[in-house]
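Late entry, zinc ion complex.
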Amino acid sequence: MTQTDTRTEFIARLPKAELHLHIEGSLEPELMFELAQRNGVNIPFASVEEVRAAYDFSNLQDFLDIYYQGMGVLLKEEDFFDLTMAYLERANMDNVRHVEIFFDPQGHTERGVSFDTAIGGILRALDAGEERFGITYRLIMCFLRHLSEEAAFETLAEAEKWLDRIEGVGLDSSEVGHPPSKFARVYAAAREKGLKLVAHAGEEGPPEYVWEALDLLKIDRIDHGNRALEDGALVERIAADGQTLTVCPLSNLKLCVIDRIEHSPVKRMLELGIRATVNSDDPAYFGGYVNANFNAIASALDLSVAELTQLAANSFSGSFLSDADKAAHIAKVSAFARDYQ
Ligand code: ADE
Ligand code: ZN
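Prediction complete; structure with ligand written out below:
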């Protein structure tokens, strides 16, 4: 067996959590076609191949334009159920044992699909997936940062009756020009309600946005955070606080945040003492689920078994599971790595 084969098998069997996954970004072209047909929605593509060919992005906005168009086939509760169940089946194949997934309610309410329809289908699938695969979950509701503060407050109000099922809030969509400070009051309100707080920061935006996310939004976890590495004081702060970064290597490559996979910051982050994790972001659009992300950087960055094990342990320690559950998962990661021949 080659070193790559051995590493691939190790990654495949390593227990892991996924902490950065937009459920709408797991909509595979095959399901997009099926739902378009089922719901009588027109899509501007003639075949699955044509859809895949359109997934050629030069930046985040290029992708977002297609991503919001793609979710237009999601109309009914069962569509959200099918979407989420398809992701969980795929996650189970990658030995993902816990997921913390995002959904974009405003991507649906803006086109007349109710908050309840979207969240109802997603939660029903998450419950069924826990039963079927033993995959535990947390659900995070994201605000679209290109929309207004007022729209975010309206979404928070719509979430009110679901708050016992929503773990936290996040911030996604077009980053540059929409700094975290725009949502400081919304985040304060979410914090008051006992919600956990995460935000995309430093994907395309400058290190200042990461500072704002930490100091103004008071987030519990940073999504992406790539550009934090440009600022030494920020790196020290992130490491000292034990902040988790949810890095998405194949997403970074597809959205030209990095020009080659060899430039993924994951290994450097570990060396700097940052709790980095590996995630798939929008796997249907970026060419791979969590193990594909691990495999891509394992060979490109020549990650050791110890580094891969650290990344899997980080995915649990950086999760919103209880301390006891984190410890139980991390013990399994360690036992697996120790016994692995
Ligand atoms: N929405 C879905 N994926 C995203 C990403 N990588 N960055 C910002 N917003 C997103
Ligand atoms: Zn994301």
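The domain at 3-340 is CATH 3.20.20.140 (TIM Barrel). Will revisit in the morning.
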